Amino acid sequence: ERGHSHTYCCYYHAPTLVIVSNEPTQWWAAMDCACAMQNIFLAAKSLGIGSCWINQLGQTYDDPEVRAFLTKLGIPENHRVYGCAALGYAAAAPVKERQLAEGTVTIIK
Hints:
Elements: E1 16-22, H1 29-46, E2 50-54, H2 56-60, H3 64-73, E3 80-88
Antiparallel strand pairs: 1-3, 2-3
């Protein structure tokens, strides 16, 4: 339903979306993709780029319309989408002071 809305954007209008996919024939395919995503996020952070893990394509990649679009983008037909990384420069926002719940223990070394 949201996918047909002209105002909905599952990747928050980020200028870049990296789609991470793999052949699901091996049991470690999802783990390989998760490691790749983490490396993308770490590299983005080191460059001052904001990132967000997006799951929608991981849930809808086998829908015929979504599959056709992924194929048009060059994602192989035999691949499953395990996640996407939305990348962009975050808007400058004041950092809120974090309020800890009573009884919270924080150890700083």
